[in-house]
Task: structure prediction
Amino acid sequence: MAEFDLAIIGAGPAGLAAAVTAANAGLSVALLDEQPRPGGQIYRDVSRASADRARVLGTDYLHGTTLTSALANSSVQHIPGAVVWAIEDGFQLSYSANGRAAQIAASRVLLAAGALERPMPVPGWTLPGVMTAGAAQILLKGSGVLARRAVLAGSGPLLYLVAA
Result:
């Protein structure tokens, strides 16, 4: 079982920054995330964004490339596609990735699980074409698909970001 000074769960902005900072301080770091690429929801697929998509999403979105580049140039062991399902005494982490279960040990664990969308069910919310603001953001960042005629309902910063 591999052992690390620090295991971080979540490769969004906070997890990326913490992992690189800890590695630069000399710690051995494992960064586990269930997504195939680092960036979290905010910087989803930032390292693969086309010039057109980057122009639409703006400079704030492109800032994520500084974090993903720093990770790529660090000693951090990034474990993508990892679903952590147990943290036991002594910080033994059990996870699944690529259809296999595995374990690592760490002296410390940092949870950087990110934001959580909490949709409110309304009549018709399961119909085709109806999606949450988070799903619309994933569609835009992951596939470059943007709704042409949409009705946005609700409040909060993510809804305003999707509207913009």
About this structure: Strands lie at 2-9, 29-32, 77-79, 83-88, 92-97, 100-111. The chain has a mean pLDDT of 90.
